[in-house]
Write a structure and sequence with these properties.
This protein is an alpha+beta fold and 567 residues long. The protein is built from 16 helices and 26 strands. The protein is 40% helix and 20% strand. The strands form eight sheets. Strands 15, 16, 19, 20, 21 and 22 form a six-stranded mixed β-sheet that branches. A five-stranded mixed β-sheet has the order 1-6-5-14-9, with helices on one face. Helix 7 packs across helix 8.
């Protein structure tokens, strides 16, 4: 397998010919590939994977972008050679192969989701070309060589118990002695009037079609492992079909032999296994018949794929269209209603996916756009309340403005970017606050200090998530696992933003009767505007820690203030 990395400036002579003879991405002696995905190159008879740039990090000592913190990308273009030369250890090699297939599956899932959208909403970033369809049980199936290989590997991994059951049944009579044939064909020697046979004949069926199918299947896996490098553990102890004999199977004997034994199978598992083997040989035969034909599945903007993955895992589908596609032309990546940071009612949480190399920080235009998203969401809700009154709820409006205090509910707003788990773990989300180079894990935009509940006070946090976990969850068939992650992650976002606010503000509630609140707010509005917010029977006060007037306000209202914790 050959490995390239998206948007990395390769010297052209290092990669020339890997993606076809015309080398469309070469310029000034360098080659930057803007795509992510899979390509089968017939001229080298090998698979080429272009992995996303998120796997790159910056090695301070080498002053260069590296993989695993040590390998220069053009040193591992040929993964198998790098392994043979002991540059990569087995864990690193297996990680690259596994990541390549996970990326391929994620792109395939993105293509499926994309194809289900109306034509005017489909992304134009997908590029695909496949060999002609393979006939399978009289039906046509779309797929690439990698689709078939992954299906073979998946079947092997998911049916170990079935294989053991078949093998046990096949061998159940192998060790029973056929005395009739042993006496008739073998010579015995006599000791103490007792005949002893040095050689015996076991009872054994002359032909076993289950056994033959298993041999063919594991021979295919062996070929795939040796040819394309996929890490496959073969525990089957039979003598496999290899070398020139397997070449004859690839040239047509495989299909012919499978057709001869097809009607010997009746169980669903055996038929599924037969189909996979036949499909493999049929695909290889097509490739041999078209030696110049390539196949590929690319996406040109992987940031859109990453955005789709995160959106599928955390967002809601039934969001008013104007909240996502905002009137000023901006499009929100992720938005969903969830419990407010302050009250028990829902408010819109707004997120933006950032597809960067490992460790990169968000700054500049991205921050300003994210603040604009939040302002647009606030105005969208206010407009609904002004136009429809209480009927605004049916239009998707949520409570942002408190009419008693003119305070605005805090709008949860965050970035989410990817990193690679250092232990190559696909099972843990690894979600945590991202620290920028200045040590901060937040940003804030405001017109006035010490006014948390002002409309223009917008806090913005930034999270990192394990890219490997996102990949695995995105292609998982288990909706319940995704739903559990969604609920847990939303709560995690909320709690961490609350932790951020608790670190910046002190919160109190006024110990005054409900009927006195309106008069109290009116008399002290000038002094407390932007610092108070009312909900239920609570009048909440937020004071910025360390601000010059916070201590004075605490002293002035000390006799009617009670500590309050956001939770």
């Amino acid at each position: 397998m050959k490995l390239l990395i998206e948007d990395f400036p390769y010297p052209a002579d290092k990669v020339r010919g890997l993606l076809g003879g015309d080398q469309p991405y070469e310029s000034d002696g360098f080659c930057r590939i803007p795509n992510v995905g899979y390509y089968y190159n017939p001229s080298i008879r090998d698979c080429v994977f272009i992995l996303p740039k998120v796997i790159l990090d910056y090695n301070e000592n080498a002053h260069a972008e590296t993989v695993f913190g040590k390998f220069h990308p053009f040193d591992i273009i040929d993964v198998d050679k790098a392994f043979r030369d002991e540059m990569l250890n087995s864990e690193q090699r297996d990680f690259i192969y596994n990541l390549s297939t996970w990326i391929y599956r994620a792109i395939a899932e993105f293509v499926r989701i994309n194809d289900e959208l109306p034509k005017d909403q489909r992304s134009r970033i997908v590029y695909r070309k496949q060999f002609s369809n393979v006939s399978l049980n009289g039906q046509n199936t779309d797929g690439t060589l990698i689709d078939i290989i992954l299906s073979l590997i998946k079947f092997a991994n998911e049916n170990r118990d079935w294989f053991m059951f078949i093998i046990k049944n096949i061998h159940s009579g192998y060790n029973k002695i056929n005395w009739q044939k042993t006496i008739a064909t073998k010579t015995a020697f006599v000791k103490d009037n007792v005949p002893h046979f040095v050689e015996i004949v076991n009872k054994k069926k002359q032909i076993n079609f289950d056994e033959e199918l298993l041999i063919i299947f594991y021979s295919i896996l062996y070929y795939v492992r040796e040819k394309y490098g996929f890490p496959i553990n073969i525990t089957f102890n039979y003598e496999l079909i290899k070398g020139p004999k397997f070449d004859s199977y690839l040239a047509g004997l495989g299909k012919a032999r499978l057709l001869q034994i097809k009607y010997k199978y009746f169980s669903d598992k055996a038929l599924q296994l037969w189909n996979l083997c036949y499909c493999f040989f049929a695909m290889v035969e097509q490739m041999a018949a078209k030696p110049d034909a390539s196949e590929y599945l690319f996406v040109s903007d992987f940031d859109i794929v990453f955005e789709t993955m995160i959106d599928e895992l955390i967002s809601d589908k039934n969001i008013p269209a104007a909240l996502r596609d905002q009137r000023d032309g901006k499009i929100v990546d992720h938005i969903y209603p969830f419990q407010s940071l302050v009250t028990s009612t829902d408010i819109y949480h707004i997120g933006d996916s950032k597809y960067y190399k490992i460790g990169a920080s968000v700054h500049g235009n991205s921050e300003y756009k994210q603040y604009t998203y939040a302002r647009n969401v606030i105005h969208f809700n206010l407009d609904l309340w002004l136009r429809y009154g209480e009927d605004a709820v049916s239009k998707g409006a949520l409570p942002y403005l408190d009419p008693l205090t003119d305070g605005y509910n805090v709008t949860p707003n965050f970035f989410i970017s990817a990193e690679i788990d250092k232990d190559f773990n696909y099972n843990e989300p690894g979600l945590h606050l991202h620290k920028a180079h200045d040590g901060k894990n937040y940003a804030v935009s405001r017109h006035f200090v010490n006014r948390l509940f002002d409309r223009d006070t917008l806090w913005l946090s930034h999270y990192d998530i394990n890219f490997l976990y996102v990949l695995a969850l995105f292609v998982s068939p288990h909706q319940s696992v995704r739903d559990e992650f969604k609920e847990h992650t939303r709560l995690r976002f909320r709690n961490q933003i609350i932790g951020l606010l608790n670190g910046k503000y002190e919160f109190f509630k006024f110990n005054i009767a409900r009927e006195e609140m309106e008069d109290f707010v009116t008399r002290n509005f000038r002094e407390l505007t932007g610092k108070i917010y009312h909900f239920d029977s609570t009048l909440l006060l937020a004071l910025e820690k360390g601000h010059e007037d916070s201590e004075g306000l605490k002293a002035k209202y000390s006799d009617i203030l009670l500590e309050f914790n956001l939770y």
